[in-house]
From TrEMBL:
SUPFAM superfamilies for the chain: P-loop containing nucleoside triphosphate hydrolases (SSF52540)
Organism: Amycolatopsis alkalitolerans
Protein name: Nuclease SbcCD subunit C
PANTHER family in UniProt: ABC TRANSPORTER ABCH.3
Molecular function via GO: ATP hydrolysis activity
Domain Rad50/SbcC-type AAA: 5-183
Coiled coil region boundaries: 379-488, 571-737
Length: 986
């Protein structure tokens, strides 16, 4: 990174615009910002920091008062910085948030913060050519190009007053946090968390497998009907399986015996049932033959009835045809009479004529009606023309009245169009202002939401801090208890070893086979189980502490993000500004909403004028055309009326005369058809009656009544025939049964005892079924036990490697997180930070040795802290004069400055090496030189001269007069009463 130009306006003590040309100042590689105390030297460094990150280092960044108190109300506070990063030259422009007097009325209004980034010489790939204007986008882009955040920048590039000495005197925790931000060791913390999470997962898996093993054990015990023992589980399982196998063998023997008894009882029952069935068949055959003899007379009547019905069926069809012919003749005769009456109703006298005459009369009348068809059409046209004449009279009057109204409407339209156009231009101007106000409203709304979430975020940080404190106390108590128990166990270790000794066995300590005076456990002694329980409690407390710390970091991150976005603005001020802007937006929106209506009304008015002009012309033309058409139609209707009067005769009009002729013709046609149908039906009736006489004689019937009396429905005939055939079949079956050989020697009076045999067979069957059920239950139990034993064995085999793997993972996780067998109590992240700190100490020692003329050097130690706290980040100073290692806090003011400067430069070198060394073309050191004597100042200046190697530019900020003589190129800042001014001399 190399700075080129800085411009500040109304910023800090600078009331007017001030410009710093870093290219000119840094041409020699070293320059000085000199001025009186309070003149604004550090403000220039604050301006550089604000342009890059939107914040300033140290306590000044917490106050957030960046605007000059002497600035004019309308003058904009602004910082402009031109710089080059990774070969890309850019221009950054930022304005802070501040309050200014309102332009109208009393009070102040808030000026929102702004930021922009413009590329000088072309935008890099992936960035818009027009630059960036959102504050968050500018911040992300700058941080991405620099490769460091604001904290890292202030520590390695911009070394502000008192800030770079803080690292020297910091405690281990504070130094660890700063190193984490500088070197980005988050990935190592993620590795630690990964190990912890993996251990939790493995523990859950091990617990799940253990629960699965317990479930299979419980299931096996449930099937076995016994309580599972706590020890010798395998022997118990084998004994249960053997007992179940013995039960199956006994059940099989009982089942075979019961089945043999059942088979014997079934054979006896079958023999008795066969004998009983033969006696029953013989008795049934005798009873059926007796019943059939009693029914013989009734069966003879059924046969006669069936024969008569068969003869009547041959004549039934002819009777039906004759009946239908008589019905059709009666219907035709009635229809003929009705049609003759209809013709007489029309006034025509030809109803008694034959068919030929009726057809002739209908033809004559049809020709007469056809001749009147053309005149009917003319009569309809005459009526239409008369109606049109009346409508034309009304149309002429309406057209003339409409023309008068249209002429009156056209008079005031041009003036109205002009008024609408003026109102539309006012609405357009409001639309231009509305876009800017909407953007401002959106920014204020986002800020108001952030302000509403701020109390909750602060409360979350407080709650998280309380939880961390409680978890830390709990962890420390658990740790202290574990150490106390371990100490007690070590004190009673002799007794614990003595408990495992036996006469004749070698002592594991001294090897002796005799133990004359065994140690006895003292009161309050601790065994291995108690110590293991304490270790487990400590591990759980530590996990809760880690979870609370993670939650706290998340809450602090969220709070910092809100504070950064709000930048000190309060909710009341934001809401007041938002209400004001909303009111202005609503007022402008109301005007803009009228724009579409005004444009539409203007277009409508213009269109209305054109439409009215066209309508006026059309109304005048319509009146003229209607009058001409009316005169033409009057002449045509008068001539047509004379022809129609001659044709209608005695009727009201021609259509009435033609309708009457059509009515008579239709009556003649229907009578002709009815008379023809009656003649045909009469001839068919005579033919059917002759056929009926011949059929009666052939079937042996004298009259139709005899046929109808003998006739039976097909269902009745079929039922009688079925009864006859069934009776014959029953008789044959009964006689065949009596003739069967196996019934020979059987008497209807024989008695067979089937009930006692059935009872014996039923009891034998029930005993056999019970034996089968017992065997099946025993077999099922054996199968279930075999299956469960296999699964129980598989579960036991699966859990053993998981236990070994978890023990290894548990120990490794403790080592990675600085516990367990980790003697230095250093986590992986602390180990990496310790390595980086060691590099920093080596780099800083080179410069500190030169500055202190070989007296002081930095000493890094990875020893564990006091009371078991983590180590690795201790940093002290070795005094070569006394040969002792001293705390950095014991150094004098000048020595502290030298040590802090050397440490800051060493830290910058290491960070530069981490980032590729491409970011440190420019370096600033603010104050501290006043504590040095002349000789030491020479040494420090030599060190700073060495920093110029490779094109680096170093800027010093100091009021020490001697530096003015040593550095020829300088920037002097003079204090003014109403603000400060800049004067550059090269």
């Amino acid at each position: 990174m190399r700075l080129h130009r800085l411009e500040v306006t109304a910023f800090g003590p600078y009331r007017t615009r001030a410009v710093v040309d870093f290219d000119a100042l840094g041409s020699d590689g070293l320059f000085l910002l000199h001025g009186d105390t309070g003149a604004g030297k550090t403000t220039l460094l604050d301006a550089v920091a604000f342009a890059l990150f939107g914040s300033v280092p140290g306590a000044r960044g917490e106050v957030k008062r960046l605007r000059c108190d002497f600035a004019e109300p309308d003058e904009l506070t602004e910082v402009v910085l031109e710089l080059t990063v990774q070969g890309q030259r850019m221009r950054l422009v930022r304005s802070p948030e501040y309050h200014r007097p309102k332009r109208r009325g009393d009070g102040t209004t808030k000026q929102q913060a702004k930021a922009s980034l413009a590329w000088l010489g072309g935008a890099p790939e992936g960035f818009p050519a027009e630059g960036l204007t959102r504050i968050d986008e500018v911040g992300r882009t700058v941080q991405g190009l620099l490769g460091m955040n604001a904290e890292q920048f202030f520590q390695v590039v911009l070394l502000p007053q008192g800030e770079f000495a803080r690292f020297l005197r910091a405690e281990t925790d504070e130094r660890e946090k700063l190193l984490e931000r500088l070197f980005g060791t988050r990935r190592f913390a993620d590795v630690e968390a990964w190990f912890r999470d993996l251990r939790v997962q493995q523990r859950h898996e091990l617990d799940r497998r253990g629960q699965e093993f317990g479930r299979w054990t419980a299931r096996f015990a449930q099937v076995a009907g016994e309580e599972a023992p706590e020890r010798d589980l395998a022997e118990w399982v084998a004994a249960v399986r053997q007992s179940a196998a013995d039960a199956v063998a006994g059940a099989q023997a009982a089942e075979e015996q019961a089945r043999a008894a059942w088979d014997s009882a079934d054979r006896l029952l079958a023999e008795r049932r066969t004998a009983s069935e033969r006696v029953h068949r013989l008795r049934t055959a005798h009873r059926r033959l007796s019943a059939l003899e009693e029914q013989q007379a009734e069966r003879n009547g059924w046969a006669a009835e069936v024969a008569a019905a068969r003869r009547a069926a041959t004549v039934a069809g002819t009777v039906s045809q004759a009946d239908r012919a008589a019905g059709r003749f009666g219907e035709a005769l009635a229809t003929e009479r009705i049609r003759a009456d209809e013709l007489a109703a029309t006034g025509h006298a030809g109803g008694q004529a034959d068919v030929v005459e009726l057809r002739r009369l209908a033809g004559l009348l049809r020709e007469e009606a056809g001749a009147l068809a053309g005149l009917v059409a003319e009569a309809e046209q005459q009526a239409r023309d008369q109606r049109e004449i009346e409508q034309l009279v009304d149309k002429v009057q309406e057209a003339r009245a409409s023309a008068l109204v249209l002429s009156e409407k056209l008079d005031g339209i041009p003036q109205r169009v002009e008024e609408l156009r003026q109102q539309f231009e006012i609405a357009n101007a409001a639309a231009v202002r509305l876009e800017a106000l909407r953007a401002q409203q959106s920014e204020l709304a986002d800020a108001v939401r952030d302000a509403e979430r701020l109390p909750g975020a602060i409360q979350a940080v407080t709650v998280a801090d309380d939880r961390v404190r409680a978890a830390t106390d709990e962890h420390q108590e658990a740790r202290a208890r574990r150490l106390r128990l371990r100490e007690l166990r070590l004190d009673g270790m002799a007794a614990e070893l003595a408990a495992g000794l036996a006469d004749g066995e070698a002592c594991p300590v001294c090897g002796a086979a005799r133990h004359p005076a065994l140690a006895r456990p003292a009161d309050g002694s601790v065994d291995r189980e108690q110590e293991a329980e304490a270790e487990s409690l400590e591990s759980r407390a530590e996990r809760r502490r880690s979870a609370a710390e993670v939650a706290k970091r998340g809450a602090e991150t969220a709070l910092a993000a809100l504070c950064e976005r709000l930048q000190g603005r309060g909710g009341e001020d934001l809401n007041a500004d938002l209400r004001l802007v909303r009111g202005q937006v609503e007022e402008l929106e109301a005007q803009v909403k009228q724009r579409a209506r005004l444009a539409s009304e203007a277009r409508s008015a213009e269109a209305e004028a054109q439409s009215l002009t066209g309508k006026l012309r059309a109304a005048e033309q319509a009146a003229t055309a209607a009058e001409a058409r009316r005169r033409t139609l009057l002449e045509q209707t008068e001539e047509r009326a004379r022809r129609l009067d001659e044709a209608r005769g005695e009727y009201s009009d021609v259509a009435a005369r033609r309708a009457q002729l059509g009515l008579v013709v239709r009556a003649l046609d229907t009578l002709t058809d009815a008379r023809s149908e009656r003649v045909a039906a009469e001839r068919q009736l005579e033919q059917r009656r002759e056929e009926l006489r011949e059929s009666l004689a052939k079937a042996g019937f004298a009259t139709v009544e005899e046929v109808r009396a003998a006739a039976r429905p097909d269902e009745t005939v079929a039922r009688l025939e079925k009864r006859l055939s069934q009776a014959a079949a029953e008789e044959a079956a009964a006689r065949a049964a009596l003739a069967e050989p196996e019934l020979a020697g059987v008497s209807p009076d024989d008695q067979i005892d089937v009930e006692s045999a059935a009872t014996s067979a039923r009891e034998a069957r029930e005993n056999s079924e019970a034996a089968v059920a017992t065997l099946r239950a025993a077999t099922t139990r054996v199968n279930e036990l075999e299956t469960l034993a296999a699964r129980l064995s598989a579960a036991a085999e699966a859990i053993r490697p998981l236990e070994d793997e978890f023990d290894e993972l548990d120990a490794l996780t403790d080592v990675v997180n600085g516990r367990g067998q980790n003697a230095r109590r250093m986590s992986l992240r602390s180990y990496v930070l310790a390595a980086r700190l060691e590099e920093v100490a080596v780099a800083a020692t080179t410069r500190l040795g030169a500055m202190s003329q070989g007296r002081y050097s930095f000493v890094h130690s990875d020893r564990a802290g006091s009371r078991g706290t983590r180590g690795g980040l201790a940093l002290d100073v070795l005094d070569d004069y006394s040969g002792t290692v001293r705390p950095a806090k014991t150094l004098s003011g000048g020595e502290s400055f030298l040590a802090s400067l050397a440490l800051a430069l060493g830290l910058a070198d290491v960070v530069a090496a981490e980032t590729g060394g491409a970011l440190l073309d420019t370096l600033f050191v603010d104050e501290g030189f006043g504590t040095l004597d002349a000789e030491t100042l020479d040494v420090v200046m030599d060190i700073l001269d060495e920093l110029r190697a490779g094109g680096r530019v170093v800027g010093l900020v100091s009021h020490v007069e001697e530096l003015r003589q040593r550095i020829p190129t300088r920037l002097r800042v003079r204090k003014a009463r109403t603000g400060s001014t800049l004067e550059v001399r090269i």
